[in-house]
Predict the 3D structure of the following.
Amino acid sequence: MYVGRFAPSPTGPLHFGSLVAALASYLDARAAGGRWLLRIEDLDRPRVERAAAGAILRQLESLGLQWDGEPVWQSRRAALYRAALDALARRGLTYPCGCSRREIADSTLGADGARIYPGTCRGGLPPGRLARATRLRTGSEPIRFVDRVQGELVQALDREVGDFVLHRADGMFAYQLAVVVDDAAQGVTDVVRGADLLGSTARQIYLQRLLGYPEPRYAHVPVAVNAAGEKLSKQTGALAIGLAQRERELARALAFLGQEPPRGLGARELLDWARNNWRLERVPRLRAAPAPAEATPG
Ligand code: GLU
């Protein structure tokens, strides 16, 4: 049975970019007769906006994107993440790290713009250092996977990412750990999300293997960018989806995903059409052009 999910971080209401991810995962699940779950990724407390989760739920409902079951909140699941972290620690797969962000600032940049951890604390904390974060030892065996949209990908974690953080210096569990634990706990078979997370996928597969979890299938859809080529977000001035413009926003998101609905349909008919006619193979790997929401003002 297909189980998909949408896992927004409640840092603001849905914008065009997050609508694209929501719609793609919803349609892929529903077209397969599957379940579609909702998970609110509210772990990163400083970035979480109080009212955003409620706004996202209302926007999804108003667009007709009905999820199955109760939404899951990551902020209530620390015990699960702790258990997974402890299981890895017991096998010697993690180590405490005393490095500050500033001390890593000179290391080589990885493909996703983050620093590759040089392994300073791998052999033990230097004398006088306090543990700040917990890192996972990465291996030299390259991680390969076939993405349903992006094709075959391979990443050597030790060279391209370095030992990565599972528990942060500020006491929070890292996204990489939480997402893997939750996808397994929720029985997710298919992850459909924005290609900005493509660079995290090998880390997640590595964790799944270490924890003995099944590996879901992945499909990374193109990411909507603004005219300056930046990913849309609250910071880059993305428009929140007004409830009044449902048809227009759905039609734009479907066009962005390479689907070609007939013109003149209302929101409900558009979504019905899209569920019945969803073709993942039409989704482009990249979208060089600005997102339609930015290209057509108003
Ligand atoms: N919470 C992440 C985000 O909003 C998505 C996580 C995922 O889909 O794996 O970018």
Summary: The pocket of glutamic acid is lined by residues 7-9, 41, 179, 193, 197 (CB under 6 Å). The radius of gyration is 20 Å. The CA atoms of residues 159 and 260 lie 42 Å apart. DSSP finds ten helices and ten strands in the chain.
